[in-house]
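Predict the 3D structure for this chain.
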Amino acid sequence: MAGDQHRCFCPYFSQSNLDLGRFVVGNFGKGETNILLLLIGTSSSGKTTLARALQAALPDYWQYLSLDMFFSGVPPQYGGGANGPLGALGFCYENKATDASISYGTIGEQVLLGMISSAIAFVNDGTNLIFDDMILDESHAAIWRNALNDIDSTTVHLSAPIGLLTSRNKVRNNPPRLPYNHIAANKILAAELSLDSGEMTVEDCVAEVARHLRNCSQ
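Done. Predicted structure below.
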């Protein structure tokens, strides 16, 4: 209920306890139109933490999907988060002296196309969706840009200081320098909101997103 006090562990924001009840303030949809809320940002920017907090705070049903969910379904030989023998076709880490990045081949591109198409299908078939994605390059951004043209959507860009992103990646056992390369890539796609999880609490971020959605629905 709207007056209930909900608590959420929020490891990527400066405050770990969140009162979610205050943000349940009515339907943000436009009549029968459903919304895609796209959260973008480099690895460890706080996208998943914010997505889960938004699910708990926003009214109505909001499905959550993420790039990591689709990565988890990639066969190991095609990447799946490691350098498989067919990673050049699927997904693989490219580790350099100054940074690390995720690259993809022809099969990886097909997966990204299917992933984004499925997100659009959720919304078109009547479900509000929060999608958590890390933009890998201009081609990846272009798929989203084209897909978002025909639906009601809001894109939120999440960031944090590079030192904080690096330390978070170490805790997650990801390549520590993975954020360096993808910081620029995640600025390619225009966003209606830009939030810094290093400076803002998750409560602040939820409030900003809720305020934006409320204004859009009026």
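Strands lie at 35-40, 62-66, 91-95, 100-104, 128-133, 152-159, 193-196.
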